[in-house]
Write a structure and sequence with these properties.
Number of strands of chain A: 0
Number of helices of chain B: 11
Shape of chain B: flat
Order of helices and strands of chain A: HHHHHHHHHH
CATH architecture of one domain in chain A: Orthogonal Bundle
Number of domains of chain B: 1
Distance between the termini of chain B: 14 Å
Largest interface: A-B, 62 and 55 residues
Largest sheet of chain B: none
Distance between the termini of chain A: 35 Å
CATH architecture of chain B: Orthogonal Bundle
Strand content of chain A: under 5%
Largest sheet of chain A: none
Oligomer: heterotrimer
Chains: A mainly alpha (about 250), B mainly alpha (about 260), C alpha/beta (about 260)
Strand content of chain B: under 5%
CATH topology of one domain in chain A: MetI-like fold
Helix content of chain A: over 70%
Radius of gyration of chain A: 23 Å
């Protein structure tokens, strides 16, 4: 059996393949394998990225998009956790909400964008609500199954230590669910970002997605590529941030 | 042994489960009829139903829906095949994994719909753009889940197979892929959802056909009852597709332990 | 004076898809204040179920009376310690122990004093701010006991409290339990599958039959607990009782096996 590669050599190979990709990109762009409109060299894209950062247009767009994504995610989090826990505790709540979740979960929420635009206009409100709509269902489902999985001996211990029936939800169910709920939110984060960007691409109203589509329509391909790279980077950074947060806040979780 | 389930019993269960939705629609209709809702912003369920009927009989929805489904399923099929193959390779070869994993992992953070304008730049407005977007979106869940299913194959299974004379080529299909099947189905379910999202996003951003475009168009024109009707259609189709996949999974995974519990 | 705990004709049937499973049938038991009673029996005989019913967590037919009053739910006068510890993982050691005191809305100074005393009792000074996941099994069990003692219940219900511990830690914890009982003279009802443990700790042992469970035999234990563990375990008195109890449990286990056999 071949010797397993060491961790460092694996890391190096990872970095190597990314650098390789960038190199191929640059060479292909410079060699004009495709018209520069379709494939600008990496260096040109990087220059455009720098430019957009310098005149702050990138940061304005980013701020708008991120604000919408986070607001929507937070809203989805609060509503989703409340609904998920209620469904776990109350059969009536479960009966009422379950079919809605079952129906809405597989459907592409972006299809509802025109409805939100109709009701709330093309500015941030409609996008935040659409993001919340898209993210709430995984949160409900995740919270519900986490709440159901809370061991009865926690409830029993709390009861024999004097906790009343009413307070069980807050004192026991909620903290016990927290690790899994947080993991669900982590998964919902990319959904929030995708929904925000797509909504902006379809309906305009500022933000990364709007600029992206705008650049495409005017064939400003370096900007198109630059913005895609930024979206990629943001996704990575935010995911890492959430992992770090999880480690700090939920230090007690196994 | 499970208690016998009669058709009537099952129908009764289904009716009970659907009841809240029926209630909500009834409430909506009552509010519309009472004039509580502005028909411009919220058409009554009745108006939507009539619009839906009109679209169905006129063939509008049928035609566009087929285009959308073609785009979704083509991208899904391509993505699934490629994803399963990639996942298998990544799980079996650490070297391959080392080179490919960062690229695959990187795409996790990238919203695939962001690539739609890029593809529109490259391929123009139409099905190719949509299929590419769907393909890329479906790739990741298939790769990740297949890889997970393959890497968790218990050693005792592979050792037994080796001892019984299975050759390396056959190992892949007879042992690893079979073991990964439940995970593959999990990935498929996620990918199915993505395929609809990307197809419809594509149509809304850069297309002249498809049901996503239809919804967008009706919205622009102000014919909101038709817009809602098209959305209802999308929701139903997505729901049915998901159920169909679950039914296929139940059949394909009859041998799996979880099937015994009657899930 | 009524017995501290009285269990009268308690029966419990679990409803399952295939009809019902009767866990307990007409169980009767009385405990006087300050007694340490163990329930032993073959696996699955329903001894834990009986404990949960006394704790007020499960409903059953029949009566459970505490100081003459019917039990209708959990209560702080009946402290429980579970085999799996049931420590709240999101609270520190201190947070867990203080839990019941917070529920009583106890004043700060009094509360802190009790917590300090208990932490000293279980010997975990310096660990107050640790989370349960950082503790060993024995430490977790000690915190679980301290948490229960904080509310000063007059009754302790122990469900195989030492079952998840390794043999050495078990022995240490047994002596701890004994010491706590001697100091506080609480009424203890313990479920265990370890006959040695039952004889070592209790002054009365009840043997339960196989499912559906009933108390079929009782043994009184009169050991001089001032002796050391070694002296006790090696003494004739201990071994005589131990053998009798073991035999009784074995008889029940064999009867269960025969009943299950096709």
């Amino acid at each position: 059996m071949a010797k397993a590669p060491s961790l460092i050599s694996l890391r190096l190979r990872s970095i190597a393949s990314i650098l390789l990709l960038i190199a191929i990109w640059e060479i292909a762009g410079r060699a004009k394998l495709a018209p520069p409109i379709l494939l600008p060299p990496f260096s040109v894209v990087a220059a455009q990225l720098w430019q957009s950062a310098a005149d702050a247009s990138l940061f304005v767009d980013l701020a708008i998009s991120l604000m919408r994504a986070f607001a929507g995610l937070a809203l989805a989090g609060v509503i989703g956790i409340l609904l998920g826990m209620s469904m776990a505790h109350s059969r009536a709540a479960n009966w009422l909400v379950d079919p809605i979740v079952a129906l809405a979960f597989p459907s592409p929420k972006i299809a509802f964008l025109p409805v939100f635009v109709l009701w709330f206009g093309i500015e941030s409100t409609s996008k935040i609500l659409l993001v919340a709509f898209a993210c709430v269902f995984p949160v409900i489902i995740g919270t519900y199954s986490a709440a159901r999985a809370v061991s009865r001996i926690y409830f029993w211990s709390a009861a024999s230590l004097g906790t009343g029936e009413r307070r069980m939800l807050w004192k026991i169910t909620l903290p016990a669910c927290l690790p899994r709920v947080f993991a669900t939110l982590r998964i919902a984060l990319p959904v929030a970002l995708i929904t925000t960007f797509t909504a902006e691409m379809v309906a305009g109203g500022g933000g990364m997605g709007a600029t992206l589509v705008y650049s495409q329509r005017f064939f400003e391909s370096p900007t198109v590529f630059a913005y895609i790279l930024v979206m990629l980077g943001i996704g990575l950074v935010l995911d890492a941030a959430m992992t770090a947060l999880q480690r700090r806040w939920l230090i007690w979780a196994e | 042994m499970r208690p016998e389930r009669t058709i009537a019993g099952a129908a009764g269960d289904a009716a009970w489960r659907v009841a809240p939705l029926v209630m909500l629609v009834a409430l909506w209709q009552a509010a519309s009829a009472a004039g509580l809702l502005n028909p411009a912003f919220a058409p009554s369920p009745r108006a939507i139903a009539l619009a839906l009927l009109d679209l169905l009989t006129g063939g509008e929805i049928g035609r566009n829906l087929l285009i959308t489904l073609f785009r979704s399923f083509t991208g899904l099929a391509l993505g699934a095949v490629a994803g399963i193959w990639l996942g298998l390779m990544m799980a079996r070869s650490r070297v391959f994994n080392a080179y490919v994993a960062p690229i695959v992992g990187g795409t996790y953070s990238l919203p695939k719909s962001a690539l739609i304008p890029l593809f529109a730049l490259w391929f123009g407005i139409g099905s190719t753009t949509a299929i590419c977007a769907v393909f890329l979106a479906c790739l990741l869940p298939m790769v990740v889940n297949t890889a997970h299913g393959v890497t968790t194959t218990p050693r005792v299974l592979t050792w037994s197979a080796h001892a019984l004379g299975t050759r390396e080529r056959k190992m892949l299909t007879r042992i690893y892929l079979r073991h990964a099947l439940p995970d593959i189905f999990t990935g498929l379910r996620i990918a199915l959802g993505f395929s609809f999202v990307l197809a419809i996003s594509s149509e809304m951003i850069a297309s002249t056909s498809g049901i996503g475009k239809l919804v967008f168009m009706y919205g622009e024109n102000g014919t909101y009852d038709y817009m809602f009707a098209a959305i209802v259609c999308i929701v139903i189709v997505a729901f049915l597709a998901d159920r169909a996949l679950l039914a296929i999974r139940r059949q394909a995974l009859r041998w799996h332990e979880s099937a015994a519990e009657g899930s | 004076m009524p017995p501290k705990i009285e269990i009268r004709g308690v029966s419990k049937t679990y409803v399952t898809g295939r009809g019902g499973v009767q866990a307990l049938r007409g169980t009767n038991l009385k405990l006087d204040a300050g007694e340490f009673v163990s329930i032993v029996g073959p696996s699955g005989c329903g001894k834990s179920t009986l404990l949960y019913i006394v704790g007020g967590f499960l409903e059953a037919d029949g009566d459970v009376l505490v100081e003459g009053r019917r039990v209708s739910g959990p209560g702080t006068e009946r402290g429980v310690v579970f085999q799996e510890y049931a420590l709240f993982p999101w609270l520190t050691v201190r947070g867990n122990i203080v839990y019941g005191l917070d529920e009583k809305a106890m004043a700060g100074a009094e509360r802190d004093a009790i917590v300090a005393r208990l932490i000293a009792l279980i010997g975990l000074e310096g660990f107050e701010d640790r989370f349960p996941r950082e503790l060993s099994g024995g430490m977790k069990q000690r915190v679980a006991i301290a948490r229960t003692l904080a509310c000063d219940p007059s009754i302790l219900l122990l469900d195989e409290p030492l079952g998840a511990l390794d043999a050495q830690t078990r022995e240490i914890m047994q002596d701890e339990l004994l010491r706590i009982w001697v100091d506080t003279r609480k009424t203890v009802l313990m479920v265990t599958h370890d006959v040695n443990e039952a004889v070592y700790l209790s002054n009365r042992i009840c043997v339960m039959s196989a499912r559906p469970g009933q108390i079929v035999e009782e043994f009184t234990v009169n050991l001089d607990r001032n002796k050391t563990r070694e002296e006790i375990f090696l003494s004739d008195a201990f071994n005589k009782v131990r053998n009798e109890v073991w035999l009784s449990v074995r008889r029940q286990a064999l009867a269960a096996a025969k009943a299950d056999a096709p």
